[in-house]
Amino acid sequence: MRARRSVYFLFVFIFGFLLCIPLPGACASLNKPVCAVLTFHPDIKSAEHYESRYITNRYSTLLEQLDLYDVLSPDKVVERLKDSKWQMVDTCNGKECALEAGRIIGVDYIIYGVLGHIGKLYSMDTTLMDVKSSKIIANATTDFEGSRNDFANEAPPKNIRELLGISTNPPEWGKILAENTPEKEVVLPEPAPAEKDVRIGPRLGFGYSDNGVEVGLGFEVMKKNLSVKILGNNNGIATAFSYHVEPEGNTPYASLVGAYYKAAPHGIDEKGWIYGFLVGYRMYFMEKLDLCLGIGPGLANYHQTELNGNNKKDSGTTFLVIGEFTIGYMF
Hints:
This protein is α+β, with helices and mostly antiparallel strands. It has 2 domains: 133 residues, 3-Layer(aba) Sandwich (Rossmann fold); 132 residues, Porin (Beta Barrel), CATH 2.40.160.20. The protein contains 5 helices and 14 strands. The strands form 2 sheets. It has an 8-stranded antiparallel beta barrel.
């Protein structure tokens, strides 16, 4: 009789141990570890933010149904982070900020991730991290080909299975279970048209020289944070290659500037090149109308093309202050 009890005890111990292997928290108890899911953020212009909120909520609901963790709802996560004045609530999708968020809201584990979309190909890349030890426990990438709706409904359960190493599902798991939700799958609205990757528009520039105020006309081509401006008049042409801190909206910028001119300062014809560097600020007055103001150091190489008062054609190099005062309309 004692032998049978020993074998029975050994069997129960081994079975319980195997149940606990997949992940911390897989062996449910009265005090389950607390897990939070940060909002999954779309990579650059690949998915809509309203989709990421829906997918995050569905992911969190499915995770809670497994009964492995006490899951903090996404709304509660955002609420706690905003109450703490945390600045990365809407942008966190990496290890360091996720770890910081997990410590702020006081959870044991945290899941963060990124959504991707190219044509009909979608992806969900997630990471599970132990907040206390700062260690990454598991990563999972779920690739999906099909419609946006199918991705939003089918990818979360597939990703959770891979992330947690789950081979079997509880009954009815993976179906949409929400209060007042009809039995049919949720149909997401079509995304808004993507913004143009490249913008172009006319530009009007003002300058000052020995000949007084001069006006130049030209255009600008802008791609994300970079832009090229070309302006000119009958006295020459100027170009600027600029980097903007922000790709859209009011933003500081820095420019490398080059210009060729042919004019008659002090009544003596000359031509030359001007090189320089300037920093400035782009301000939008309307959605597409903007003003650029900049200033910086420059270097001019000049050559006189007619005799001066000393009966010479001087040439040389001189330092000067260069500036930008341009107005543009970007399509």
